[in-house]
Q: What sequence folds into this?
């Protein structure tokens, strides 16, 4: 009980509670307006996130739309067994994980670097202008992004390829060659999302106490020193939280994006779980099987979040919860 | 205080309640008078959305005594959306399906009404050529009304002016194809001094489905249409020599840069644009050549286009097509009684009556067309595209096959293409596996197909050689291809025994 009080520092004014239930009830009565404000969010999550979860049971059935959830037979882990013994499983797993790792290594740090750079801009007007400008790609749909890259990179009068041809006398089939696929995907992701990704980091950077910089300057710290000893530690917890949340979507490769970029010639590196679920579920109506694949993906994400959160706490960071 | 809180909760819950009770087809609305039969249709849309409650729809409603509620879904999104509707069990009363494994398996699961036994009561539905029905039958039973199309549509369409200028003739052998494509790529047929034309342009669907370029050329050279049956043995087209030679033709064209290098990534629209702007010379198409001509003369006023039979050394040969652009089926989810099924069939039957056929194909007299004695003349092509075409594409129409309505006077080229289309029927090579059952095909047909289609593309692009191609074939066989052949053979022999 004592521990309970000491950890719940967020709810001040509680003195020696008698029982858990009693405390909760009293809390609710006292803070009813706060709880009322919480209600819409809770209802939203129940209706749109928890209720639909009964659909997960599909992964353990032979679901047929006509017979529905009640009439379809239960088959246990059949679909999971099929998935893991599928000859394609190795390829799908490898492609998905490689893309996910690339995303973490190349894409994740980009918004941080960009926001650090923006933070150093001293002219507020210019900074705001750039900020607005780099948000724009986020609102462009993948179809358009892929279309733009097609126009730039196609071997038939593509702008960049024509340029390349003038300089080197050769063209590169960026959109066709399997070895270019991952580079293209990551580049496009960075182009589209880097600006949007800076939002949270810039907010965190705005919260850094200016007095610390002042003190550092008086002590003679250079810009780099200030960055290293003040700015980065200040946003470290934000970075870690976003990193953990990112791990939750580790195996999400971004279906639409990949789907648009896959061609017969790069399929062996491009096919990922997301596209596989689409082919199986949507085009071949194997709902239960694709639900099982999707569930597997989510399970991996959950394990990664729990694991990394545990690790973060172990190293004295705050973690997500 | 308490009252306030209740009210607050009620307001917060409101959207949820609304979402929960929304009726699927808004059937709570009732019109006054003798209520017409309300019929909701899931429809594909090619092109522009027709105006709400337009005259064509009104005419159909008045004649058939229905109140139509057509849910127009763009062609490209239709299958995805329909599959979701099927999965959710929320369907319109009449939907358009394609003859593909996933729809066939939902039909087999009993989600649609069997219509076969009822057809005899409907004079127009029952007289349709039985081939149209057998091509959409599932386990020998009929679940739909076909949206009829020609059974053999492929024709060679080419730039006559370029051919004349370069002294070319319509290709017959594979070598001819090479010569023609090469000449039109390298010999500057448009005479602008630049090498900016292609003999032929492919798009990323070049080897898919019935309109596969490889199948069409291979059939013309004596190959099978998708499957070869010999003494009850099934062999896929890509294991035949003719098909391999056809692939080699394209490999050579690609290597010598005589076709577009980006065909893997461009879609059909992009390829059409190249043809329409006068930068490519020959294609095999199922559409009418007149539409190419119409678009082409906007950029190249003195262009000339012609159409010819698809023929090889053994004469005219072309792949037979299913003869439908899908079929209408009645879902049990939304139509509960047999009586209602009959009402729907009656509606479809009425569509085949001459006055309705006229409306579906031509529109309303004096608005879309005018009577010129022995032929009809389209008065306003824009209005025709906007108000009539969606219905012409969607609803069954036999106008071009039966002379039940007044013919439109069309340009000579259009008629020539149509004439060829009609005669084509004599020369079609059928796909023997079209209506055969195979569990492997249903379960993993798509994956197997992908293996082969990808391998074909890679072979043409020179990414794999003959050895690599053989390896892909072995992969196909191991992944279920051999099994699929066996299943087709069984289904074939048991059907022959019947």
A:
């Amino acid at each position: 009980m004592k521990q309970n009080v000491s950890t719940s520092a967020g709810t001040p004014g509680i003195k020696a509670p008698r029982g858990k239930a009693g405390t909760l009830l009293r809390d609710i009565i006292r803070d009813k307006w706060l709880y009322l404000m919480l209600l819409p969010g809770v209802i939203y999550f129940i209706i749109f996130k928890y209720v639909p979860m009964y659909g997960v049971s599909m992964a353990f059935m032979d679901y047929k739309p006509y017979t529905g959830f009640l009439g379809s037979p239960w088959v246990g882990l059949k679909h999971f067994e099929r998935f893991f013994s599928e000859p394609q499983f190795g390829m799908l797993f490898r492609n998905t994980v490689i893309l996910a790792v690339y995303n973490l290594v190349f894409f994740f740090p980009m918004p941080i670097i960009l926001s650090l750079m923006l933070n150093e801009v001293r002219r507020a007007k210019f900074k705001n202008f750039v900020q607005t400008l780099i948000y724009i790609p986020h609102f462009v749909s993948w179809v358009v992004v892929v279309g733009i890259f097609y126009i730039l990179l196609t071997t038939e009068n593509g702008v960049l390829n024509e340029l390349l041809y003038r300089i080197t006398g050769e063209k590169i089939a960026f959109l066709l060659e399997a070895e270019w696929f991952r580079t293209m995907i990551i580049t496009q992701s960075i182009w589209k999302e880097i600006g949007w990704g800076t939002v949270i980091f810039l907010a965190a950077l705005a919260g850094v106490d200016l007095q610390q910089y002042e003190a550092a300057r008086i002590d003679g710290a250079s810009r780099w020193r200030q960055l290293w000893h003040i700015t980065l530690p200040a946003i470290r917890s934000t970075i870690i939280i976003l990193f953990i949340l990112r791990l939750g979507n580790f195996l999400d490769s971004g279906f639409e994006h990949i789907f648009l970029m896959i061609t017969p010639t790069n399929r062996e590196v491009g096919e990922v779980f997301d596209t596989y679920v689409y082919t199986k579920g949507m085009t071949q109506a194997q709902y239960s099987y694709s639900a099982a694949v999707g569930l597997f993906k989510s399970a991996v994400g959950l394990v990664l979040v729990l694991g990394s959160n545990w690790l973060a706490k172990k190293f004295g960071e705050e973690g997500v919860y | 205080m308490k009252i306030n809180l209740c009210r607050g909760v009620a307001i917060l819950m409101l959207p949820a309640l609304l979402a929960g009770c929304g009726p699927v087809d808004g059937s709570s609305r009732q019109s006054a008078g003798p209520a017409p039969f309300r019929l909701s249709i899931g429809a594909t849309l090619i092109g522009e959305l027709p105006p709400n409650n337009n005259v064509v729809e009104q005419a159909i409603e008045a004649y058939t005594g229905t109140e139509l509620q057509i849910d127009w879904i763009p062609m490209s999104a239709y299958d995805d959306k329909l599959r979701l509707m099927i999965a959710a069990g929320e369907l319109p009363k009449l939907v358009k399906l394609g003859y593909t494994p996933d729809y066939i398996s939902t039909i087999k699961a009993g989600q649609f009404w069997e219509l076969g036994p009822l057809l005899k009561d409907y004079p127009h539905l029952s007289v349709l050529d039985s081939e149209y029905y057998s091509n959409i039958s599932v386990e020998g039973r009929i679940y739909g009304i076909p949206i009829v199309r020609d059974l053999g549509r492929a024709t060679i369409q080419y730039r006559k002016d370029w051919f004349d200028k370069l002294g070319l003739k319509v290709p017959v052998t594979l070598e001819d194809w090479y010569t023609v494509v090469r000449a039109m790529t390298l010999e500057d047929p448009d005479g602008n001094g630049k090498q900016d034309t292609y003999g032929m342009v492919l798009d990323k669907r070049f080897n898919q489905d019935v309109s596969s370029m490889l199948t069409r050329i291979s059939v013309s050279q004596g190959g099978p249409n998708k499957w070869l049956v010999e003494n009850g043995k099934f062999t896929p087209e890509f294991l035949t020599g003719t098909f391999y030679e056809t692939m080699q033709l394209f490999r050579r064209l690609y290597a010598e840069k005589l076709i577009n290098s980006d065909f893997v990534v461009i879609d059909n629209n992009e390829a059409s644009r190249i043809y329409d702007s006068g930068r490519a010379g020959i294609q095999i198409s199922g559409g009418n050549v007149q539409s190419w001509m119409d678009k082409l003369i906007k950029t190249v006023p003195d262009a000339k286009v012609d159409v010819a039979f698809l023929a090889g050394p053994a004469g005219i040969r072309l792949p037979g097509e299913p003869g439908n652009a899908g079929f209408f089926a009645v879902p049990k989810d939304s139509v509960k009684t047999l009586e209602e099924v009959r009402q729907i069939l009656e509606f479809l039957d009425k569509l085949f009556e001459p006055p309705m056929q006229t409306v579906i194909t031509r529109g309303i007299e004096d608005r879309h067309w005018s009577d010129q004695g022995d032929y009809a003349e389209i008065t306003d092509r824009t209005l025709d595209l906007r108000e009539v075409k969606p219905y012409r594409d969607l609803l069954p129409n036999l106008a071009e096959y039966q002379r039940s309505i007044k013919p439109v006077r069309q340009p000579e080229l259009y008629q020539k293409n149509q004439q060829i289309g009609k005669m084509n029927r004599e020369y079609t090579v059928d796909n023997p596996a079209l209506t055969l059952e195979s569990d492997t095909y249903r379960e993993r047909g798509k994956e197997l197909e992908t293996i082969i289609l990808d391998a074909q593309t890679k072979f043409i692009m020179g990414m794999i050689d003959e050895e690599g191609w053989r390896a892909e074939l072995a992969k196909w066989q191991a992944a279920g291809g051999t099994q699929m052949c066996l299943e087709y053979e069984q289904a074939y022999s048991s059907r022959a025994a019947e």
Summary: The interface with chain B takes residues 32, 36, 39-40, 43, 47, 64-68, 87-88, 150, 154-156, 173, 175-176, 263-265, 267, 279, 282-287 of chain A (CB under 8 Å). Residues 86-314 of chain A form a domain with the MetI-like fold fold (CATH 1.10.3720.10). The radius of gyration of chain A is 25 Å.
